């Protein structure tokens, strides 16, 4: 009797939502998921190729470091869409029954871990990139330029390890992953129970803290960069590529905030105030967050320095960019600063 009861017991991942579901097919369209995943994968793959070519030709050590961060971000987005998208699209095509396919919740736990891991990585990488640019712009003498690439690779690996450790917490008993409506994905259980609430707070607060750090440091870096480019000492330092990197970084931060803040704030509000979870709101916020993985690669593709120059040279933008034109003019630099040859796009770094 005991063994029969235990075999009929509902697995933890199906305790809230158990298949099969009666759902609206318009929100679970296989075409939507397939197009969404295909667009994201192709965009990230194209961005990886462009990044690899740019990294091969760049001569600036600090820019190489930034490109490694961007490469880590795009690669993470690509793998996130590949892993989670393949599961979601497979469900919509085959309509498999989760309880029959995964009676012990291993598959659901894997997808939940993937959702948390690939969700936190872009936010943590954005914060790490903001720190790197803050140090490079505001404290250029505080870092060793000869080891910038290896330091960037180590930072990306540390971000992956940190996000991986957080995603493994439910397997250690802190929180749990549950099947979510419409039955195509698994995610952390949003609940006010102590252990579930703790994991929900960790996930949401780590994400929101990463966005806050990015916003604060990027704001300081932009103010400093504007002072250097357009101030009295604008003739001392040539920073075209730093303007390019800051534009990209601000767009990454802005898009990540727009895409992720609704989901993170919803989780935080729900677990703290013990409100009932609306599964369709969670689904909408998650789809909005997934848009971040599609937008990230196009930030680099569309915001390279050559395109920014062309934009500034257009007649409609000349009046608005007259104040910033000094940032894109060539200067003779003194020793100990970045050198640039007028009319050229090649740079060389003299170690600080």
TrEMBL record:
It is a multi-pass membrane protein. It comes from Carassius auratus (Goldfish). It is found in: Cell membrane. It holds the Pfam family 7tm_1. It comes from the Eukaryota. Residues 43-300 form the G-protein coupled receptors family 1 profile domain. GO terms for biological process: adenylate cyclase-activating G protein-coupled receptor signaling pathway; inflammatory response; positive regulation of blood pressure; positive regulation of cytosolic calcium ion concentration; positive regulation of vasoconstriction. One of its GO terms (molecular function) is thromboxane receptor activity. The gene is tbxa2r. GO terms for cellular component: plasma membrane. Signal peptide: none annotated. Keywords: Cell membrane, Disulfide bond, G-protein coupled receptor, Glycoprotein, Membrane, Phosphoprotein, Receptor, Transducer, Transmembrane, Transmembrane helix. Its main location: membrane. The keyword Transmembrane helix applies. This is Thromboxane A2 receptor. The chain crosses the membrane at residues 30-52, 64-90, 110-131, 152-179, 199-226, 247-268.
